[in-house]
Design a protein that fits this description.
Layout: H1 2-35, E1 40-44, E2 51-57, E3 67-73, E4 86-89, E5 104-105, H2 121-133, H3 135-138, H4 150-158, H5 160-176, H6 197-214, H7 217-222, E6 230-233, E7 240-243
Antiparallel strand pairs: 1-2, 2-3, 3-4, 4-5, 6-7
Helix pairs in contact: 4-5
Length: 244
């Protein structure tokens, strides 16, 4: 009987710990939403909240027009564990901070360890955004042999023309796979559809109309003078059309 009670207590403790962790992860997601990071979309997996799906859209600099899919893997005891979350790209990405073999992004230069309550996932994504916006600046003050891709770093510093050419190859490849069949059946995997006038046309017009109304004085006053982004998601699926 005593053994049964101890087992139940352990099960209850594990359940409570799991629920608390889920709330913390949900809070991280809410913070990302509130930060409105331009060009980055992420969502936790439906099956496993420790795995997130993401897409990075390059908006400026050498990586403009890139579309890089990535996965975020959170440590089992996130966010209490000091271990860092892992970001892994789904394709080759040439960058001094991206390992050419595992496609993983080295975030240790910005986050030596994870500090619960101080470090957040939105900051991790902001770091991703910044290092792709200006890769050269992202390696200033760091010894070349401490970078994940030494060859990329040396090209960036000494042969920028060749570096740009390789980046363009990455960008071309990324665009060729935008509409690929999802590698998973997880309903939260981010899916993109080719534009279809009969399906997406009406939604696009609603987005345009909404943006037009937000520029009117009355609309801005009703929202405290702040414009908000608009998005529509196909019912039952995660296929967004949005405007920031």
């Amino acid at each position: 009987m005593t053994l049964d009670l101890d087992a139940h207590k352990k099960d209850d403790k594990l359940l409570i710990t799991t629920i608390q962790q889920e709330y913390k992860i949900l809070a991280e997601y809410k913070m990302i939403e509130s930060e409105k990071l331009s060009g980055i979309y992420v969502i936790p997996s439906y099956a496993n909240s420790l795995q997130w799906f993401g897409v990075f859209f390059g908006r400026q600099g050498l990586y403009a027009e890139s579309v890089f899919r990535f996965t975020i893997l959170l440590p089992d005891r996130f966010p209490d564990d000091k271990s860092l979350p892992t970001i892994i790209f789904q394709q080759d990405v040439i960058h001094p901070h991206v390992c050419p073999y595992t496609h993983s992004l080295d975030v240790s230069h910005a986050f030596p360890e994870w500090r619960c309550g101080e470090d957040h996932l939105w900051q991790l994504l902001k770091y991703l955004q910044v290092i792709f916006s200006d890769p050269l600046d992202s390696i200033r003050g760091i010894e070349v042999d401490k970078l994940k891709n030494r060859e990329a770093a040396e090209l960036l510093m000494n042969n920028k023309e060749e570096y740009v050419a390789r980046v363009q190859e990455n960008i071309k490849e990324s665009k060729e796979h935008i509409f690929d069949t999802p590698p998973t059946e997880d309903p939260h995997y981010i899916v993109f559809e080719k534009f279809q006038q009969d399906v997406h046309g009406p939604v696009l017009e609603r987005i345009k109309a909404g943006r037009s109304k937000q520029t009117e004085p009355s609309a801005q006053q009703g929202n405290g003078g702040h414009a908000t982004g608009l998005s529509w998601v196909k019912e039952g699926e995660f296929k967004p059309l949005s405007i920031e």
